Amino acid sequence: MTISTAFTDLFGVTHPIVCGGMTRVGTPGLIAAVAETGALGFMPAHNSPSPEALVKDIGRVRDLTDQPFGVNFTILPSRNPPPWEEYMRATVDSGITAVETAGQNPEPYLPLFQGGGVKVLHKCTSVRHALKAERIGVDAVSIDGFEAAGHPGEDDVPGLVLIPALADKIAIPFIASGGFADGRGLAAALALGATGISMGTRFMCTVEAPIHENVKAGIVANDERSTNLIFRQLRNTGRYVKNGVTDEIVRVLGEGGTFEDVAHLAAGERGAIVLETGDLEAGVWCAGQTQGLIWDVPTVAELVTRIVADAEAAIDRLVGLRG
Ligand SMILES: Cc1cc2nc3c(=O)[nH]c(=O)nc-3n(C[C@H](O)[C@H](O)[C@H](O)COP(=O)(O)O)c2cc1C
User: Fold this and answer.
1) CB of 177 shorter than 6 A to ligand 1
2) pLDDT (0 to 100) of residue 158
3) How far is Cα 40 from Cα 18, in angstroms, rounded to an integer?
4) Which pLDDT belongs to residue 264?
5) What is the pLDDT of residue 78?
6) What is the predicted pLDDT for the residue at 77?
7) In this structure, what are the phi and psi dihedrals at residue 42, rounded to the nearest 5 degrees?
8) Within a 13 Å sphere around the CA of 165, how many CA atoms are in the beta-carbon half?
9) Among 48, 77, 137, 180, which is most buried by a count of CB atoms within 10 Å?
10) For the purposes of burial, counting CB atoms within 10 Å of the CB of 229, is it exposed (0-12), middle (13-18) or buried (19 or more)?
């Protein structure tokens, strides 16, 4: 049995399950493994150092699977932005059929994508931004609740309110992101009006995720309280794993410090060292509240199969409650 929704129809995938774009984690191997299961993985464009490298990485995924997959564009404010349009052109020319946009309004890029037959899933963290995305013509929305790893926004609205609040207002398909790790979560998201789920942290804890085993073990050992919200004072909130480094960032900014005071702690290179060497105190690294729901490191195929089966069981259980 499978669970078909407007999302699976729109994106031509088997399961209403997405692996959201993940810096340094969403490599060709992981994205191909996700695609092979019939779920939809997004490989971050910025993981590839150039548009040419992205084309090669797309080829690497294709060497491993003939199933659909997408590319994530995380367009953050930057003094020295990557050549986004070249990355986008390379994506369209490579025949990719789905992109996940995040970070800012994707309106300037929609003609390029949609003119090339690419479906656009825009990721945001509030009902108002989701409705704006619908108005400008994206194909679908992914909405991240306060539980999420990475950038949960500044509104602090968890999925239990955010998802039905959006369901009441939006006409295009949307999926729920942040706080999902199992079949109960998928069934709940569907009950609340979403047409699927997107996950980040849960996919980090799979055999195929290209990160050190200590990181996966750390997530398994952690619980739902094992995150810190950093950069709150800068209105650029990030949910990262609680460790000595994120504790220090929270302390310094809480005492009136500036970004310059903590930039050395938050450096991306230090986060990369965590994922490569497994030294969990080497820097800032990303995982969400779902750490409290993760207790093993399955293969991606085992994970997706289990989530779909458990969601079906949860739906059957609920149907069985009817008098
Ligand atoms: C290690 C890691 C890296 C991430 N990097 C990105 C990124 O580069 N771009 C992006 O749009 N989202 C990024 N995210 C957010 C995920 O795509 C997804 O929205 C989020 O993880 C959902 O919350 P969850 O972790 O509770 O499933 C990242 C998440 C993690 C865990």
Assistant:
1) yes
2) 98
3) 5
4) 98
5) 87
6) 85
7) -115, 120
8) 16
9) 180
10) middle
pLDDT at 276: 98
Partners of residue 204 on adjacent β-strands? none
Tokens of 188: 């709940």
- What's the per-residue H, E or C state across 143-174? EECCCCCECCCCCCCCHHHHHHHHHCCCCCCE
70 Cβ inside 6 Å of ligand 1:
no
- The response to whether residue 21 sits with its C-beta less than 6 Å from ligand 1 reads yes
The answer to whether the Cα torsion of 313, 316, 318, 323 is positive or negative is negative
Domains and their CATH numbers in the chain:
6-210+296-319 (3.20.20.70), 227-286 (no CATH)
Tell me if 179 CB under 6 Å of ligand 1.
yes
Closest ligand 1 atom number to CA of residue 202: 27
Place of tokens 């009006």: 193
For residue 320, the tally of other CB atoms under 10 A from its CB is: 7
**pTM of the entire predicted model:** 0.98
* Sign of the Cα pseudo-torsion (28, 216, 38, 184, in order): negative
Q: Are 218 and 283 in contact (CB under 8 A)?
A: no
Q: Helix 300-320 crosses helix 183-191 at what angle (to 10 degrees)?
A: 50
Run means of pLDDT, 10 residues per run, the chain, 323 residues: 94 98 98 98 98 98 98 93 97 98 97 98 98 98 98 98 98 98 98 99 98 98 98 97 98 98 97 98 98 98 98 97 92
Predicted pLDDT at 277 = 98
Q: Encoding tokens for residue 36?
A: 């092979």
Measure the CA–CA gap between 277 and 281, rounded to whole angstroms. Answer: 11
